[in-house]
Structures are given as structure tokens and as C-alpha cells.
Amino acid sequence: MNGLAILIPVALLLGSSGLVAFFWALRSGQFEDLEGASIRILEDRHPDTENTRDDNR
Amino acid sequence: MSRRAAIAGPPDQRISLFNVPGIHCAGCISKLESGLVREQSIVDARVNFGLKRLRITHGSALSDTALREAIGRLGFEAERVTDDELVNIPDERKGLLRALAVAAFASMNVMLLSVSVWVGAEGSTRDLFHWLSALIALPAISYSGRPFFRSAWTAVRRWQTNMDVPVSVGIILSAAYSLYETIVGGPHAYFDGALTLIFFLLAGRYLDASMRRRAHDSVIALQKQRPTKALVLSPDGLSHWRPTDELAPGMRIIVAAGERSAADGIVVEGASNIDRSLVTGESLPVRAKAGDEILAGMLNLDGALTVRITASGKDTALAEIGRLMEAASQGRSRYVRIADRAARIYAPFVHSLAALAFLGWLVAGAGIHQAIMVAVSVLIITCPCALGLAVPVAQVVAVGSLARRGIVVKDDSALERLAEADIAIFDKTGTLTLGRPELVELPSLAPEAAAALLTLARSTRHPLGAALADAMEDGDAGYLAASAITEVAGLGVEGRFGDRRARLGRPDWLGLDVSEISDDTLLRTAFMLEPAAPVLLTFRDRIRPEALATLQSLAELGMESRILSGDRSQTVTALAEALDIQGLAELTPAEKAETIHVLAERGRKPLMIGDGLNDGPALRQAHVSIAPAAASDVGQSAADLLFLGESLMPVARAVRAARRTMRLVRQNLVIAIAYNLLAIPLALAGLVTPLIAAIAMSCSSIVVVCNSLRLRSAAS
């Protein structure tokens, strides 16, 4: 029982932090172009286009 | 927020969207993005790879043509996305995705707790787990379930029912029942079932929403084609600009070269070539002189015309097209999608079944508590989980497959309707043909003559001039300094090169007799640099690549093809014969729509493929419609699907994919219903525990999803 008192809050905390992270990712537009994102990892960095990620739809 | 600021942009910046079908690799992305940013007054360029769409933030002075050229210099073909609203579309998908994330989080945590109960947690541990589940599930259900509750409430308030009514009732009842169990310390709580249900259904809803584009208002697109003001000539001989809606019959307006007429009228002065393609679909410019009719929206190519207005504002032929389109769209909105048809039968069935189970168990002598439990488990087990996924998953997979082949599905019921189509109706100009004249053969000219020709060709607004310049662009013809280039209205252009006179224009103007050349499908112009003899230049509106093969594929699919064109009958007949199909010519937009209407009355399901404004009513009237992505604004917004590129083959490919999709959707529905038929007796017998419900629900959903994934190659 004592173990549960620690483990359950920990599980909930981890889960909800995942949820918060997902909300953040959604807000910053990272789900706009999933196919493109998988390809962009091969791309050299363009600092000038880096900060415009959330503008695309 | 920063995003809002970026969309509105600083006042001197605009955002333009382009469809760029050629994007297919990482190299394309970086080439476009970094290449465009180097251009002057382009602030930012961003590729959306999935949509093959390019978003450019640029100085507002930069025209679409300039942007397209800039993209062209990087080696890509681009079409402007005409619907500006796409830029600012409020995305219902984001709300759904958030609800989906909450449901996923909650259902996984509750499932963890539930598994402990299923494997035998008892007494106070079980009660604690149930309470924890309730603590997570109740807020999650009330947040994530809102899309269903809202839609169900709207339906119930109007005394109707839809798929969301049984879903909502099932979710609310099972949550309430589980809460009761938790409070009294009972053995069965269905929190996990309710949450998994919401999760799966939201997934289906999200996929569905990702296919749906906002209904395009084709009438607004139409109004953009009309000039907003006109140069009115007052009786005292002065002229001034007046807004279009102040025009009235009897007024005289001046339509300058390069302008579209703002009203219908009769030419009283001047002579010019008129590009009537916007209204009639004719490919060839028509010569207009005093006494000829000109309609609003027609483009005056070379000489200035004075026009006496006969109809303006709402009475113009252009406005009539708008009304026709509106009327045709109303019939369209009555189409009921297959998922909704299923729901209409399904919802009452499930509710009566649950009620019967409740009464049946009461009559059989069970307590109220047990009767409610059975009724709830019937609702949970029959909840259209797989049914909710059956249609959207299959369609989304198919739409993705089509998108990879350059076919954009704009309407969420388009695939269903396309699968039903049994006759294909083609427009001619711009649909079966590419819609632009191409030089058949470049005559061999002396370098000096070639340079003079190119100079003259570039100086005229006539479409043949542009085609000529296009054809010569790749050659080595240079510019030749010319003096006094003049456009002779309705005839051609003339220029002086040193002391030699050059003319480009109508063959008879240059003294060529062309009456014995009878092939009327060719457009002709002539060129002469004195003292050499005039040369005849012939143009042709080229048939789209693979047109014949496309028609054959359609025939193999059991679809007859026909041409409906506004163009002259000689041109249409020649093309119809070349393609071996029936053709009707010289049709007004209203007649096109009427022909389609008559077909539909006879029980046919016409597929209309067209591009022009004059096809607008027909595109809306047809059971389903396809337009090339290079179509006019109106054509683009009126059609259900768009295809990119020059080939016509996407039409046949789309039909084939649509039929395959609907076959698979029906399979999915059978799977979903078969599962319910198996599970219902168990539920009625009161044998369904939360564990069984969870397993059954997940299995049927997974089977449906896996089956749908087979459509990944639907468009190949």
C-alpha cells in the first residue's frame, strides 16, 4: 500500500507532463506538417527560417 | 500571440499560398525556402511538405505572376491557391486533437488502474482504484466528450437523432453508473470503457475533420472576376471613374485595352479583339466592332472600346452565372453521407435494444440495479466505435494516397459521390485541352527577322503574342531595337526596325489569303519583315497528355464520356472525333448546367470535369466535379477535387481510387456490424464485464483500422 501511495502520484505526474508537452507542441505548430518534419531532419540548418515554424499551415 | 501577428502581418506584407506539386524531397524544400528568401521583397518562405504547399510572406507590391516566376526560376511549377480564407481558417482539428490527447492520457491511466482491479484487487484497494479512476475520468470525459455532447444536444433539441446521440447517452450513462458503483463500493466500474470509446471516436472524428475543407463560396470567387469600377463617359464628353454598382443601362463606358468589361453592352465605337473565354469558354479571341455585343467579365485585348450598357449589376450574364451556381449548390447539400445513413438506422435500433433489455430483465425478476447494468453494458458494447472509425479512416488513407499522386480532395463526401459517378462530362478548353495556344512549328527565319518577331510578340497583349514569345524564349533570338511599335486594334502590331517595317497580326492584314486553308481548329497569325514575304504562324490548343488513355480507362470503368463546350461547333467536333466521344458545342453556362440536370433526372450520376467560370454552374450541378488546379478561381472553388499537372490521367485514377475506397468502407461497415451482432447477445445475457467490453471494443477498432490501411496504394 505504501508503495502505491508513491507510485500512483508519480504515474499521474509523468502522464500529465506528457499531456502538457503535447499541448505545447500543438500550440507551437509542430503538427502542421508531419511528413515535412520527417524530411527536414536531413536538411542543413537555416537559422533565418528556423523561427517561422509556427506560421505554416 | 505571435502567430496572430504573423498572419495579419505588417501592413505592407502579404501572405500568398501556392500549390507546388513538384515538391518531393528534402532538397526541394531547402531549395525553395532558401532560394525564395534571397529574392527581393520576399520575407519568408515555408514549405508544407504534406500539402505540397508553399507559403510566402512578401512585400504587398509583389504580384502573383512575379512570385510564380520566382518559383519558376528555381525549377518548380506553382499554382496560386486562390482561396485567401485558407490562410486564416480556424482549425477545428486543433480542438479535436486536444480532446484526443486528454482522452488518451486519461484512458491509459484509468486502464492501468482497471487492470489491477481485473487481476483481482479487492476490498479497500479496489475502492481506492475506482475512486482514483473517477477522479481522472470524470473531468476527462466532460472535456473530451464535448464534441459529441454538443452535436447530440443540437440534434435532440430539434427532435432528430444522429450518431452522437447513442454515443453521448452511452458515455453519460456508463459514467453515471460507474460513479454509483464507486460510491457503493460495487465490483464493476466502466470508466475505462467510456474513455476508450471517446478516444476511438475522437480519432475517427479527427480524421474526418482533417479531410474537410471549409465550404468554398464560389459565388464570392465569381465576384472577384468583375471590375469594381468603370470609366463612364458623360454626355458632355468628360469621363470619370464610377463604381460598378452605380452603372445603369444606357450609360456609355470606355473599356481600355487589357481591361475586363464591367457590364453587358453593345459596342458603339472602336474595334478590338475580345477574349470571351471567361464567360463562354471560347479559346479564340473574337473580333468586336461597333454593333457587337460584349458581356461583363470579357477581356478587351487590344483597342479601346466605347460600350453602351444594356445590363449592369445583377442583370449581367456574369451575375446570372452566380445565381445558377447558388441554385445548383442547394441540391448538392442534400447529399447524405454513408456514415450518416448508417447512423440513422443504427441509433434508434441501439436505444430500443437497451430499453428492451432493461424492461426484459425487470420482467424476468431482476432488480433495478442489475437491469440498469445490463442496459448500460448493451449501450457500451454497441457503441459505434468501429462504426465511427470505419468511414473516416478509410477515406483519410485514400485521400493521402491521392494527394501523393497530385489529386486534392476538397470535400468530405467527394469520394463517396465520385465512386457513384457513371458518366463523365468534359469541358473542352482548359480541360481536355491545355487551354493555351501553342506554336505548332517555329518557322525558320533570318536571325534579324526572328529578333524582330520576338520584339513584336512581346509588345502585344494578344494571347498569341505571349504564346509566340514563350515558344521563342528558348531560342537564340535576341531583341532588336524598334522604333514606333503600334498596336493596330483588331489587326495586329506594327513596328519599324531601322527603315524596315514589320507586322505581326491577322494574315489578311499582311496580304495573305488563308481562305483555302480550311482546317479551322488551328489559330493563325502572320509575320512579315519587309521586304521578305509574310510567313504564316499556326497555333494549336494542345490536347492534354494521356487524354485518350484517360477516356479509355474511364470506359473500362463503365463510364461514358462526353464533351460539353461553349466553343464553336467546328472546334468541338474535331476534338470529339479525335477522341471518339460525343460532343455538344456552343452551350451557354446555363445550358451546360441544364444538360447535367437532365442527365441527373434520368437517374445518371454525372461527373463534371471543367475549369472555367462558364463551367461553374455545371460543376456545382453535377453529382461530383473535378477541376484542374490551373482552373479559374470559380472553377477551383466549385469543384470537389483538383488535380495538378498537365496529364488528364488523374481523373481516371481518382475514379478508380474512389470506387476502391467505397468498397473498403462497406467492408469496414460489415466488420463493425458483425462485431456488434456477436457482442449484443453477450450484453443482453448480462455477461459483459468491463474487461470483455474493453477487449471487444479495441479488437474491432484495430481490425477496421488495419483493413483501411490497405488503401495506401489506392491511387497507384
Explain what you see.
The complex is a heterodimer of chains A (57) and B (716). With 57 residues, chain A is mainly α. Chain A has helices at residues 2-27, 34-40, 47-50. Residues 49-57 of chain A have low confidence and may be disordered. Mean pLDDT of chain B is 82; it is low at 1-8. In chain B, a hairpin with a 4-residue loop joins strand 2 (42-48) and strand 3 (53-59). Among the domains of chain B are: 2-81, Alpha-Beta Plaits (2-Layer Sandwich); 92-213 and 335-394, no CATH class; 227-315, Calcium-transporting ATPase, cytoplasmic transduction domain A, CATH 2.70.150.10; 447-531, Calcium-transporting ATPase, cytoplasmic domain N. In chain B, the strands form 5 sheets. Chain B has a 7-stranded mixed beta sheet, sandwiched between helices. A 6-stranded antiparallel beta sheet of chain B has the order 6-5-7-13-8-11, with no helix packed on it. In chain B, strands 16-21-20-19-18-17 form a 6-stranded antiparallel beta sheet. Helices cover 50% and strands 18% of the residues of chain B. Chain B is of the alpha+beta class and 716 residues long. Classes of the chains: A mainly alpha (57), B alpha+beta (716). At the A-B interface, helix 1 and helix 2 of A face helix 1, helix 2, strand 2, helix 4 and helix 5 of B.
Task: Provide key terms for this protein.
heterodimer; A: 57 residues; mainly alpha; elongated; disordered C terminus; B: 716 residues; alpha+beta; Alpha-Beta Plaits; Calcium-transporting ATPase, cytoplasmic transduction domain A; seven-stranded mixed β-sheet; six-stranded antiparallel β-sheet; 25 helices; 18% strand; disordered N terminus
Brief summary of the model shown:
The complex is a heterodimer of chains A (57) and B (716). Chain A has 57 residues and is mainly alpha-helical.
Give the overall pLDDT of chain A as a whole number. Answer: 74
Number of strands of chain B: 26
How does the overall form of chain A come out from the CA principal axes? elongated
Give the structural class of chain A. Answer: mainly alpha
* C-alpha-based Rg of chain B, rounded: 32 Å
Strand content of chain B: 15-25%
End-to-end distance of chain B:
43 Å
* Shape designation of chain B: elongated
**Largest sheet of chain B at a glance?**
7 strands, mixed
Number of separate helices of chain A = 3
Residue windows where pLDDT falls under 50 for at least 5 positions of chain B: 1-8
- What is the residue-mean pLDDT of chain B, rounded to a whole number? 82
Question: Largest interface, and how many residues on either side?
Answer: A-B, 32 and 37 residues
* Counted beta strands of chain A: 0
Quaternary organisation of the protein chains: heterodimer
Q: What is the first-to-last residue Cα distance of chain A?
A: 50 Å
Percent helix among the residues of chain A? Answer: 55-70%
Structural class call of chain B reads alpha+beta
The portion of residues assigned to helices of chain B is: 40-55%
Transmembrane segments (chain B): 96-116, 128-145, 165-183, 189-207, 345-364, 370-403, 669-685, 691-709
Organism (chain B): Sphingobium chungbukense
Subcellular location (chain B): Cell membrane
Keywords (chain B): ATP-binding, Cell membrane, Ion transport, Magnesium, Membrane, Metal-binding, Nucleotide-binding, Phosphoprotein, Translocase, Transmembrane, Transmembrane helix, Transport
